[in-house]
Design a protein that fits this description.
Radius of gyration of chain B: 23 Å
Distance between the termini of chain B: 63 Å
Helix content of chain B: 25-40%
CATH topology of the largest domain in chain A: Alpha-D-Glucose-1,6-Bisphosphate, Chain A, domain 4
CATH architecture of the largest domain in chain B: 3-Layer(aba) Sandwich
Number of strands of chain A: 14
Structural class of chain B: alpha+beta
CATH architecture of the largest domain in chain A: 2-Layer Sandwich
Shape of chain A: elongated
Shape of chain B: globular
Strand content of chain A: 15-25%
Order of helices and strands of chain B: HEHEHHEHEHEEHEEEHEEH
Number of strands of chain B: 11
CATH class of the largest domain in chain A: Alpha Beta
Oligomer: heterodimer
Largest sheet of chain A: 8 strands, antiparallel
Order of helices and strands of chain A: HEHEHHHEHEHEHEEEHEEEEEEHHH
């Protein structure tokens, strides 16, 4: 193909990926002074209606609010529910807290919702069955997202807001919505001030995509879908705790800790003269009972208190394995992620796996099953330690 | 990473005709593909991961950073997934498709496609399951699902742009616990759907014909208040357990007005009947809507007795 940007389907990937990556929640950059025609709203709804539907075909309904008195009522309702944001903004202002910007932006919308030229509410006929599965929602949310994408392509923007669902009864009364209809999202719609928006920071796909089994990662994509040493096969175990990162860090930075939960790891000691930090080394002792025991030197390659602890086994440039703890705030607590990648050499697994290409996959997966069980036991152990679950359960 | 490069070409920006036309085309022609999946053409991991990177850019609600994607490549696991897919109800779909073959029934084509997929799903180069850490709160509102369904739809569009296709399948969720066991999903993980991913045979897809145009289903300021090219109107609708033909017979007995228009549609378990009425400048829409409701109530009564 002449132009490498054009896919075989005839799409310019830069354009489609640009659309999907830059349709952001817009609040402060909504242009409240520029009118929006019904026609552009109809066009976006027609496009949105092309999204797939489940069994509930043709059941989506769209509420377009233009009347200022009704917008004001919805704005009041939104402000009532959104006080949490205006209060949080007061607390965070000038602190440089990572959430300061998004909270300030949300608070701005809370105070200005009624100024949007149009409020569009996506709704659907039907009541969710509370089955724990998407059911009804997968017939309408893709469509709502298409609407948002179609706006973006036309130089308009919006934010996917759901707070009015916290006040369903009043919402239904204001808009005359009959029983049997479920409101999904309220879009404040306006032209955007400028049309340039940047992608959001996100974890790369390779870290949140598991192959064939929950928790099995590949650091390099394979071309044929098979599991090979060369692609850097890995394992992830993660858990949410109620404790703050500052409370979890002392436990995960204790190199001896996993010995309490793992069936193979016996313990570790810092090398004499080594202070915990990048460049430090420690020796870990392992044993597969009744088979063999081994010791490995581990090199600390990342050490960011309350965030990351990474070490490489044997040779930092050609490690037998890379191990890593990542810690991040999650709600009021934290999410702990324990991950590892099997190296290309300097370990016991790879020679076994490469002995017979027919068995490469099986050897790697069996090894990962063992590692996964131990890593899972470790993160659960950490959670019990910080949340006090182990003590509480006796 | 699927993060796009900075745009050098200004014709490339949103709000330009080119950009809009391409986006509209993508949104209109990303269809559920079953019969035109190319099971014989290999798909590499990179392509799927690129689509996930793009999909991850979709908005999330409170459950930030909680989406996890499972890609099934291992043939033995795909075979087992195929068994579960059939036992989740697709075996029934296949039987129905066989029965409808050549009948010209309105669902024949859809069923034939579903049968083709059911019989071949283990041959798909990759099965992709988007999941999210968390459980739905049973509130009747999307909640948790607001943080993942947009992303799954972005994934489909990103595939389409690359010449691949898929279909949003949910019937397999009838076997969700067995799937969770097979893939070793922890308890707190919610599965959303299963995408059989392959290159498509040909890349030309047409928009679907939707039953309603935007002006039929977009209500202004109050539920049921429309703005159509012929002027403002009101609409209300009911679902009836009766077949469309039986409903049609009742409608034909009513006094008709040229200001009113009935829309009758078959839905699972019966019919959906919509009544639209034009509203004059000197008519109060609320009164007009009350009249429409009264007419529909009368029809409901006929079926109740």
């Amino acid at each position: 193909m002449a132009d490498p940007r054009i896919s075989e389907a005839g799409f310019d990937l830069d354009q489609i990926d640009h659309l999907l990556s830059t349709t952001r929640a817009v609040r402060k950059r909504l242009d409240f002074d520029r009118p929006v025609s019904d026609e552009v709203i109809f066009d976006c709804i027609d496009l949105a209606e092309q999204a797939p539907t489940g069994g509930n075909d043709a059941s989506r309904r769209w509420l377009v609010v233009r009347d200022q008195a009704i917008k004001d009522q919805l704005g009041d309702l939104y402000r009532e529910t959104g006080q949490i944001f205006t209060k949080a903004r007061q607390r965070l202002i000038g602190t440089g807290h990572p959430k300061e910007k998004v909270v300030s932006s949300s608070a701005y919308l809370v105070e200005n919702m009624a100024k949007a030229p149009v409020l569009v509410i996506a709704a659907i006929w039907g009541i969710h069955d509370n089955s724990g599965r998407p059911g009804l929602f997968d017939t309408v949310i893709p469509s709502a997202w298409s609407f948002n994408l179609a706006l973006r392509a036309r130089g308009l923007g919006s934010a996917y807001t759901t707070m009015l669902n916290g006040n369903v009864e009043q919402l239904e009364e204001i808009l005359g919505i009959p029983p049997g209809v479920t409101t999904i999202v309220t879009f404040p719609v306006a032209y955007t001030k400028g049309t340039e928006f940047k992608p959001a920071p996100r974890r790369p796909a390779s870290e949140i995509t598991y192959f064939d089994q929950w928790g099995f990662t590949r650091s390099q994509p394979s071309t044929d879908g098979t599991t090979r040493v060369v692609d850097g096969q890995g394992v992830v175990a993660e858990i949410d705790t109620d404790a703050r990162p500052s409370e979890v860090w002392p436990i995960i930075s204790d190199i001896d800790m996993p010995a309490r939960f793992s069936s193979e790891f016996l313990g570790a000691e810092w090398t004499e003269g080594s202070e915990p930090g990048v460049g430090a080394t420690f020796v870990g002792r392992n044993e597969i009972p009744d088979m063999f025991a081994w010791e490995v030197t581990c090199h600390v390659t990342e050490w960011v208190p309350e965030q990351t602890f990474e070490w490489r086994v044997t040779d930092p440039n050609n490690p037998g394995a890379i191990w890593r703890f990542d810690l991040a705030e999650q709600g009021a607590g934290s999410r702990l992620r324990f991950s590892m990648i099997i190296g290309q050499e300097n370990n016991g697994t790879v020679p076994q796996a490469l002995k017979d290409p027919e068995k490469e996959e099986r050897v790697l997966n069996r090894r990962r099953q063992t590692l996964k069980a131990n890593m899972q036991a470790t993160v659960e152990g950490v959670r019990d330690l910080v949340d006090g679950g182990a003590e509480a359960d006796g | 990473m699927g993060v796009p490069k900075p745009m050098a070409d200004p014709a490339f920006a949103p709000a330009t005709a080119d950009y809009q036309a391409i986006v509209d085309h993508a949104l209109m022609t990303t269809r559920g593909v079953r019969q035109r999946l190319d099971f014989d053409r290999e798909v590499d991991d990179r392509t799927i991961l690129d689509c996930i990177d793009v999909a991850e850019q979709a908005p999330t609600g409170g459950n930030n950073g909680s989406r996890r994607w499972i890609i099934i490549r291992d043939q033995a696991t795909k075979d087992r997934m195929a068994e579960l897919y059939l036992s989740a109800g697709v075996d029934w779909v296949i039987e129905t498709a066989k029965r409808l073959e050549g009948s010209g029934h309105q669902n024949e084509r859809l069923m034939t496609g579903a049968r083709h997929l059911g019989e071949n799903i283990s041959r798909t180069p990759a099965l992709v399951i988007p999941t999210i850490l968390g459980r739905h709160d049973g509130s009747g509102r999307p909640g948790l699902f607001d943080s993942v369904i947009q992303s799954a739809w972005s994934f489909m569009i990103a595939l389409r742009a690359r010449g691949l296709g898929t279909v949003w399948t949910t019937m397999y969720l009838n076997q969700a616990p067995a799937v969770a066991e097979l893939l070793e999903l922890p308890d707190h993980v919610t599965q959303i759907c299963m995408f059989p991913v392959a290159y498509t045979i040909g890349t030309d897809f047409k928009p679907t014909s939707r039953r309603y145009r935007a002006e039929d289903i977009a209500y202004f300021d109050r539920f049921g208040h429309t703005r159509t090219p012929s002027g403002p109107g009101v609409v209300d609708e009911i679902e009836l357990k009766a077949k469309p033909n039986d409903v049609r017979a009742i409608i034909d007995q009513l006094d008709s007005s040229d200001r009113q228009r009935f829309d009758l549609e078959q839905v699972p378990g019966g019919s959906r009947l919509r009544l639209h009425a034009r509203v004059d400048a000197d008519t109060d829409p609320a009164t007009a809507l009350a009249e429409v409701r009264a007419t529909l109530d009368e029809i409901t009564q006929r079926f109740a007795t």
